[in-house]
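Structure tokens please, single chain.
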Amino acid sequence: MMPLEEIRSHYLPGISDPIKGNANQEYLADNALSFVKIWIGLGLRYPGEYIVAYSDQTKGFWNGGYNYSTVGEYIADYGTELGLYKISMLSSKSIAYLLTNLFRFIPLLDILISIGIYIWIVLYAFIRSIDRCVLKWTFIILPYMLLIISLWLTTPVYT
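Here you go.
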């Protein structure tokens, strides 16, 4: 998959992207069944660890807001390598900085840019529509719930 020395230098317990991005994809594809068997075996042996790992890797879905990087920061830090540049439509850099980082100055606003708060709102609305027997709203919210469930099952999100 990758040399042990590289795993040590890329491993971060809170996020899997550095390992995924540096793994030998051809080797993984050729040995996918072996990895799935190992993954299932370890999950059966250590179910508690899998639950903790899953909740850690999907905390962006659950947490209603915490300080984390934003897309704009990544473009500023890494975008030049990819040919991406932030172009401010504001005449003043200080105004652009203030608007981009307003949620850092007023912590309550952090909730508004969080994926988690919107997940909780949809989940609450879905449960409430079922509880109140408002079938129309249940069917309106159902596609969002199915999308959220599919994301919970398939993707780690730390934003």
